[in-house]
Amino acid sequence: MCELLGMNANVPTDIRFSFAALAKRGGETGPHKDGWGISFYENKGCRSFHDPNPSAQSELAALVKNYPIKSRMVIAHVRKANRGRVALENTHPFTRELWGRAWTFAHNGQLKGVKDLPLSFFRPIGTTNSEHAFCFVMDYLVKTFPECPPPKVLDREISDLFAQVRAMGVFNALLTDGRSLYASCSKKLCYIKREAPFGTATLIDEDVRVDFAAETTPDDKVIVIATQPLTHDEAWTLVVPDSTLILRGGEVI
Known about the structure:
The protein is an alpha+beta fold. It is about 20% helix and about 35% strand. It is built from four helices and 15 strands. Strands 3-2-4-1-12-9-13 form a seven-stranded antiparallel beta sheet, with helices on one face. Strand 5 (about 95-100) and strand 6 form a beta hairpin. The longest helix has 16 residues, at about 130-145. The radius of gyration is 17 Å and the shape is globular.
C-alpha cells in the first residue's frame, strides 16, 4: 500500500516537518520506494514536484525538505506500485483543471474493475487504476455541473462519488481544488488538528522535534491527515472506515 499525506490550514503553513517523515517512509523506514510527489497550493496556483525514485534517497525530496514553501493546502504521496510500472507518469499526485482551478488527487489501495468505468473528457496519462478513478470523478463533475456548484452541493456529490468508488475495493484517497480537502477512507486514515495552545511534537521516523508554539500564532488552525500517524507524542484521530472527511480552513466540515 502507498502512503498519503495531506494538510489543510487557515493560514499558509510549513509542511516540511510532516513531509520529512513521509519521505523517510519512501524506501528507508517503509517499503514505498516506487516514486513520490507533492503538490502545494498558492491561491489558485499549484506547485508540484514528482520523482519516480525513492523519496528517502531523492535529491529532489531533499530540496523540498529544505525549501520553505508555506501553503494552506498540500497533498503528498509515496508509492508502492501494484498496478502500472514505476514511471514519472504513474507518480501521484495527479492534477487536472476543472472550472478554472487545479484539482489534485492521490490514492492508495487496489480497485477491481475501475478501468471499466467509461471516460469521456478526462483521460489518464499513465496506466494506474488510481488515475483512472480520478478521471472518472472529474468526468462526472464536469458533465453534471457546467460551473462550480455551491460548497454544500459539491461536498455531497464528491462524497457520493467516493462511496461509489469505495465499493470497488480499497479507496483511501485525497482530492482538493485548493479550497476544500476531500479524504476518502476505506480502511486506514488518521488526522491531527493543531491549534492554540500549541505544544511540541516528535517524528516517529526521524529524530526531529518541533515546538509549534514558536512557529505559529494563536489564530492558526492546521489539520494534517496521513495514512499512519507521523508523530508519537500527539493524539491522532482515526477516520471512520467507509466514510469521507471534508476539511476547509483548518476545520473538519
